[in-house]
Amino acid sequence: MADHFTDFDMPDTELTRKALAFAEELETPALVNHCVRTYLFGRAAGEAQGLRPGADYDDELLFLAAVLHDAGLSERGDGDQRFEVDGADVAAAFLRDQGVAEDRIDIVWQAIALHTTLGVAHRLRPEIALTHLGAGADVVAQGIEAFPEGLVDRVHAAIPRLLPDAGLGDAILDQALRNHDKAPPASLAFELLRKVKPDIPVPNLREEAAEAWPGVA
Predict the structure, then answer these.
(1) Per residue in 35-64, is it b (16+ CB within 10 Å) or e — as a string?
(2) pLDDT of the residue at 1
(3) H helix or E strand, kind and range, residue 139
(4) What is the pLDDT of residues 33-84, one digit of tens each?
(5) Which of 4, 71, 117, 125 could form a disulfide with 87 if both were Cys (CB 3.0 to 4.6 A apart)?
(6) What is the model's pTM?
(7) What is the dihedral of CA 179, 180, 181, 182, to 10 degrees?
(8) What residues contact 156, with CB distance under 8 A and at least 6 apart?
(9) What InterPro entries has UniProt attached to this entry (predicted)?
């Protein structure tokens, strides 16, 4: 995997190499590959918007967020929160151990915690938005028509998919089945859980508000 730093001109620092090694320690090869592709596709999504790495956003932070964004789907990252937040916490602890400044850690934390949040993440600072867009591009090919010609094929040739969805669906669902607290309403995990457990209660805001405030007009 280290050769990809040169092959794809990824930010090559001691910290990025340690982060990739940490991801490889935590996750399956399919998930690690997905995370690296998330960086490459996120960077391409930024270029399609005229954003330049190192000028319009911190390329190292984008790499860190992308390569660590699924830490919550690992055994070590499987806590009691939704996987995005568990993963953000794992990434933050890792970066803190490496002596990274808190303001930089906060950007990575937000990018990971919000990477599945449609309608919000793409409006935030580039490192957060591009982590979200890169993940979407790799999972459902969102926005890839704007990428440079041949990039997607080149990335897949070097960093293969291994599994159609990189194993994301099973990993997220397995956690949700074991602990419904990891699948709060409206989350990606909740929607996957509903597919296999259609009887799971779906919150009704009007009913809950009426029960909370009986007799109040």
Answers:
(1) bbbbbbbbbbbbbeeebebeeebbbbbbbb
(2) 46
(3) helix 126-140
(4) 999 999 999 999 999 999 999 999 999 999 999 999 999 999 999 999 999 9
(5) 71
(6) 0.94
(7) 70
(8) 37
(9) HD_domain
- Under the banding of pLDDT at 50, 70 and 90, the label for residue 5 is very high
Q: Is residue 35 within 8 Å of 29, Cβ to Cβ?
A: no
Could you tell me the domains of the chain? 3-162 (1.10.3210)
Q: Is the dihedral of CA 125, 129, 131, 134 positive or negative?
A: negative
**At a CB cut-off of 8 Å and minimum separation 6, what does 157 contact?**
none
| CB contact set of 18 (below 8 Å; sequence gap of 6+) | 98
**Whether pLDDT at 9 is above 70:** yes
User: What whole-number distance in Å separates Cα of residue 58 and Cα of residue 76?
Assistant: 28
Structure tokens at 74: 């690992």
Cα 215 to Cα 217: distance, rounded to the nearest angstrom:
6
**Both structure tokens of 45:** 């999504």
Instruction: Please give the pLDDT value at position 217.
Output: 63
- What tokens were used for 88? 């953000």
Residue type, 131: T
**Separation between Cα atoms, residue 155 and residue 42, nearest integer Å:** 12
Question: What is the C-alpha to C-alpha distance for residues 131 and 74, in angstroms, rounded to an integer?
Answer: 19
Query: What type of residue is 25?
Result: E
Residue with tokens 């599994």: 163
